[in-house]
């Protein structure tokens, strides 16, 4: 059997769904069929890093020092030339890019280097919640341009495909929908430790714990979560709140939550997300934009019902009224109402959490995700007749 060389390119390896997705795609690759490399820019930001986990898995990180997240014309040009040179010298058969910056520069470099197959996973989109309208338009134009040299796009949900097609990015036949999978096993163990985790957090058995996990950045909408927490706490004294993660808004969010006192804990970066999810009674995702909302899978795997905003691919994950409650973005009053609805009804929390667990466990494994991604590679290998 012929082996094909694959290069995965991503801007940084911080803590996040896109980075975890890419890491596991490399880690679980079929090595009999694919010789896989991971290329990344420097990891920066308050969100934390998964680089230690990547190296512990025996994966070498091939560094591109000028591949940085923010727009930097001179560094971007150097990154483009460096990537092109690397891809040409290593003669990769498949170049698979991830996220916006690495996706644009990586695909152009792959095209210039003559890579036979170019695949891109956006892990969401930049059409809302990130930039001003003129900047969003400019980046959308770049995405349309890069689509011309892309053999396949992989969206996390069907809704993600429709959102890109609405912006005239690619053709329908270029797109495939493949979820971002998770490892279920850590959540099984975390459920067994639920009582101990809650005790460590100072949560009594009779208190309702509501929480969020994610980057503390504007697009994640946590300012609306804190506002909703104020309203919900006023209406129900037995509510407690936690927020795990870090980012540029942490100080501002802590100031916003001051009146809640000890009822809201900011936990910072954590390495025990399965335990935190299992300790929750209600998980909240208040994002303004999400490719899929991988944390919703984690909450479901832990048996926690979710209150989430109906943005991006979230409605493809949460079945409204069955595995959680969907609300409109930027509406803290709606978040508070949904939190209180679940907080007042233990049987509803149990039924929704159980339905979420039943929906997630068999369908969203990382092994299934990787198999489907490699099926896309095989499809393109056949189309391009690279086997002979």
Strand order of the largest sheet: 3-2-1-4-5-6-7
| Unreliable runs | none
- Average pLDDT metric: 94
Encode the helix/strand succession as letters.
EHEHEHEHEHEHEHHEHEHEHEHEHEHHH
Work out the number of β strands: 13
> Structural class of the secondary structure composition?
alpha/beta
Q: What features would you describe in this structure?
A:
This protein has 388 residues and is of the alpha/beta class. Helix content is 46%, strand content 16%. The chain has a 7-stranded parallel beta sheet with strand order 3-2-1-4-5-6-7, with helices on both faces. A 6-stranded parallel beta sheet has the order 10-9-8-11-12-13, with helices on both faces. The longest helix has 19 residues, at 366-384. The protein is globular and about 65 Å long. The chain starts with a strand and ends with a helix. The model has no long low-confidence stretch (mean pLDDT 94).
What is the structure about, briefly put?
With 388 residues, the protein is of the alpha/beta class. 46% of the residues lie in helices and 16% in strands.
